[in-house]
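Re: guanine structure - here you go.
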Amino acid sequence: MGKIIDGKEIARQIRLQLREEVQTLVAEHGITPGLAVILVGSNPASQVYVRMKKQACAEVGITSFSHELPAETSEGALLSLIDTLNNHPSVHGILVQLPQPAHIHPQRVLEAISPDKDVDGFHPRNVGLLAIGAPLFRPCTPWGCLVLLQTSGIQLDGQQAVVVGRSNIVGKPMALLLLAEQATVTLCHSHTRHLAELIAGADIVVAAIGRAEMIRGDWFKPGAVVIDVGMNRRADGTLCGDVAFAEALPRVAAITPVPGGVGPMTITMLLKNTVIGAGRCVA
Ligand code: GUN
């Protein structure tokens, strides 16, 4: 029977550590880390995420600056707000919640955020730095996946890793992070042929495709380690990942549950990036 990787507990431990780091920054350098969170429109899922981010900031002592703007906000007004935050000394991290309304060009917005405050790691400069192995800010979800593997004592060096999903937010940066840890990485996607066979050869599988329980338990090599980034809703309303968890559990060495696996790590790594950003302001 595989071990269940407890993302909630690992996230809790990291947040305790972050709280201490924040206290040190305040006491020794007079710097309180600050995170600006911008939400345009009223996407209900985004509203929940933004609320969770603000709560998590408060938990570790980070000041959050919330900017909740109406859906009809112009791109120019949003860019002007970002410019103000880029130059605001109390703001060490800026995050624009995605997705944005259709009239706003997402890439233009991401490129307007100062790379030194880009705690999502989505600015092309930060993407490039990650690609050459010199990251400034690592994207939060894939970094959280990596930390789950490292905290669980999983060897990455020389291992065969399969990442399923090629999004800019998860799949692509995940492949780069695993490569930096000396894994041999195969990046699979919707056009990949023989996906089940590729997964059967993997020591580590990261699933980030957004299709409920698409990856079946008998695809895995016995003893594989599985990180499930999926967050899907079944027809009966219950949550599930991209992996058929109950099938996989008896076969694998370790697996993350959904919920309670990767989810709690994403916001935790956002907090960590904000503290790193603030730490860079120490004279
Ligand atoms: N929407 C879904 N995931 C993310 C994320 O990691 N960052 C931002 N800004 N928006 C998101």
